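User: Helix-turn-helix transcriptional regulator. Structure?
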Amino acid sequence: MARTKANISQKLLAEKVHISSKHLSNIETGNTTVSLPIFLDIANELEVSPDTLLCDSMINAKQAYIKKISLLMKDCDDYEARFIEENLTQMLDSFRKLEKMRREKGS
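Assistant: Predicted structure:
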């Protein structure tokens, strides 16, 4: 897999956005808040949209996840795409059955 900007080290990213590695670590772990300018600098340096960085913290992040999945599948061949689709279908079926059972049990 090709190395992307999203894979750069924490130390290098901190240097590029002119903050300390400790501050960046605290941002990543949620131990400190990040200013909007620094947040945008981080997104720009990683060459990702801000929603990509936020989607794990957002409730309504479906579009961000769809985009991430699409990017992951971009270089898949036909066999890989079929394998992923079949497994995703099975996972969704299982998840929905479990959710239905959970709801019925809670009623």
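The two ends are 47 Å apart (CA to CA). Residues 73 and 80 are 8 Å apart (CA to CA).
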